[in-house]
Amino acid sequence: MSSRRSRSTQSGSPGITDDHIMDLMSKLQALLPEHRTGSSKRMSADEVLQDSCIYIRRLHQQVDGLSERLARLLAMSGMNDAEVAVVRGLLHM
Question: 45-76 vs 81-91: helix axis angle to the nearest 10?
């Protein structure tokens, strides 16, 4: 039997093939900022997933920092609660 056999055949249920997984991993790698610079370096699935997790954590940290900054700016703005709610609503669209 071929090692390129689909996962659906191995598990007995319809599903995703190894080729589809490789395609998805390539697309995920292309989304990472370090790899959008045109580098065609082939990475293992493990490396792509690790880099993706690191990137997502970094994005969460940036969101947290921006949220704290926004909270401070809104507190200093002199706006009433209704106006602050409108601004927050617009930002969460």
Answer: 160
Structural contact between residues 31 and 41, judged by C-beta atoms closer than 8 angstroms: no
Assign residue 2 a region (left: φ > 0; alpha: ψ between -120 and 50; beta: otherwise).
beta
Residue 14 near residue 8 (C-beta atoms within 8 A): yes
Instruction: Give residues with Cβ within 8 angstroms of 55, minimum separation 6.
Output: 32, 33
**Model confidence at 57, in pLDDT bands (50, 70, 90)?**
very high
Spell out the residues 6+ positions from residue 38 whose beta carbon is closer than 8 angstroms to its own. none
pLDDT in tens, 8-43: 445 555 688 999 999 999 999 999 987 765 566 778
Residues 72, 77: Cα–Cα separation, whole Å = 9
